[in-house]
Amino acid sequence: MENWLRYTFFAVGMLFAAQSMAAAGDYVLEGKFRSELAKAEQGDPKAQYAVGEMYEKGRGVDRDLRSAFSWYSKASQKGNMKAEYKLGMAYLNGKGIRKNYRKAYEWLKKSSDKGYVRAQYYLGTLYEEGLGTEQNIDKALKWYKLALQGGYDMAASGIQRITQQQERLESLRRAAIAKAAQLKKKTASAAPAATPVAAPVAKAEAGKVTTKQRIQAGGWKKHGKPSEFLPSAITRCKDLGSRMECLSKTIIRNIGMADINYQTKATIFDFKDDGTFRVSYRNKVTAITITDEEFANSGASVPVRKGWQDAEHKLDCSLENDSNITCKKNKLASVKLHR
Q1: What is the count of structural domains for the chain?
Q2: What is the share, in percent, of the chain residues with pLDDT greater than 90?
């Protein structure tokens, strides 16, 4: 009984001690918050960032993500790169503000350009996934490497993903070229030698790499970004004999008031020996996310609907060489692709 009482008194004493320490800790944090808030209200960007972080984490003040966003915004106006990063992450995750991938990209880009490694890593993820900007694995790799050089170890996993993807694409491209070369050799060796003069001509014609095979080599880009309607890093294509059919991964594009998620389905056909071919494609909208708060409150409708769009885009294309294609879109706009 005596031992039990001793243990009880000891436990109660420890509990009160812990509560007292916690209260003292809270008092210190609350004092720090008041101190930083006073400087922040005087326009000190470091203090404004500190107040935003305390609101975000609930240190010395009740957690309030909207207030955190407000103070980060004030610090960012003074060029604070950490505050710019925080705004980018808030827009990316929808914390304290409506989710907006385009604005997430803009703020993370500002912070990244100033050398903040965390922002550089997450900017890399936006380029890798095509969020807030068009997908570009080359730019994703660039920012991952900068983040890793700056000591942000998590970027190593991003570099590994991109490197593996590039190796797969290069392997597919080489396989397509090897297949075309093998077909050329096989066809040339099987060509009949009708006469000493005619045979070489027949072999040359039969062994020529076709327009379709040159397109199938893949890796096509438009303005440095993977093409959504030709074989590329973001499309999967089927060879159906006289035509090819390609379906893109989900692409996200901001149209001002909303983010539009869509896929592109393309048919490539009418391959000619002179390098010309035709493309027809349509877009399927899979999700619409309004990103402009004023537009959301206006009651207006987004000028895009979910599902397959009515517009069918047609391109007349020509291979200039194995690395460049020029197309005329809907008989009006000129589109150039490369790899």
Answers
A1: 2
A2: 43
